[in-house]
Amino acid sequence: MRSALIVALAVLRLGWSAAAGHPLAVDVHSRAVRPGEVLTIDVRAPEAVTQITATLGERAVPMWEVSPRAWRGLAGLDVEQAPGPLPLAVTATVKHGPPLSRTVTLDVQPAAFAERQLTVPPQYVDPPESARPRIEREARRLNAIYDAVSTTHPPGPFAAPVPHRRSSPFGSRSVFNGQARDRHAGLDFASPAGAVIKAPAAGRVVLVAPLYFTGNTVVIDHGYGLYSILAHMDRTLVREGQVVVRGARLGTVGATGRATAPHLHWSVRLGSTKVDPAALLDTLAAISPPASRSSGR
After folding, report:
1. Can you give the pTM of this predicted structure?
2. Which residues constitute the domain of residue 105?
3. pLDDT category, 19, cuts 50, 70, 90?
4. Do 213 and 286 form a contact (C-beta atoms < 8 A)?
5. CA gap 57, 238 in Å, rounded
């Protein structure tokens, strides 16, 4: 399966090799270059590197060392990312000589997202004014979490947190009682009440709390700015600060928060960007560590 995925992604591997006349080789792996996707960025230098900095548009891309001459990072294209050219700028600080800098341009393609019409009780459309202070307080807490970048361990491979059918796709727009809402920034699973929810990847639990919108919620820091949010739980089975492995029991499916029926909502943040969790299931599982030598393409 792993080899098959690597082959499937090869057609979506963008490469700017050192052989093309620049000492830095830059490769971008992704299912596609469109809103909601996760990009794996590999950089290779002709000599040992002490530091790599990268930005995609105006967003910094945290990078980690794979070998003395090879570094990797994950970047996200937000669900609301506009199509068109998007610069990826990379600078490598080498042990000897001046820094090596390179800018390449990605061509972001438009994405086609679904729309669904729903009729729900009025309280699910607009929160009461009395709830505003709580909503704003919780949003500030979550944003502070997403702004932090831990560098203890790079993200590892991902697996779906439940084995059930996906019921609401990433990027879909819901129209509640005729009022359009923000795009769905996660993936919903039609899981029965009480089903066990497992950690999609290793990481550290950074939040366990009942939140207004998402009910009993667990947030996991997977490292280098990558976070999973698992929502609407009936029970939570972990504590803040706990380190979990992939497949660890996090809680059980419920309908807490603003949910009309039991299901699991799984969303993923790469810093401030909202990306499709399904992209992690494909992209991170498929990409092997880069070689330390320069690309010959």
Report:
1. 0.87
2. 2-111+282-286
3. low
4. no
5. 36
